[in-house]
Amino acid sequence: MIRRGHIGRTDANQGEIVKALRAVGCSVTSTSGAGNGLPDLLVGFRGETVLMEVKDGAKVPSAKRLTDAEQHFVDHWRGRPVVIVESVDDALRAIGVRGDK
Hints:
Elements: H1 14-23, E1 27-30, E2 41-45, E3 48-54, H2 68-76, E4 83-85, H3 88-94
Parallel strand pairs: 3-4
Antiparallel strand pairs: 1-2, 2-3
């Protein structure tokens, strides 16, 4: 059984990432409150769905590690791999749109 833990908690940069994704035409649904390791965002773009786990790039590496539940989800998901993003640029690259850098 996977612990739910930190249900509803979002990283500080998630709002900025969601705004940027929507600005380029993505549909975005936040699943942060679902628990059980489900990635933070479901992103639809050009007929594809991308699962994104948002981590705050400003935090130290130990604070950006996946929780046990998140790691379990990533390891056992049989669809397109979960993308871990720390910035707007990471998120835009994940959908095939160039970031600023």
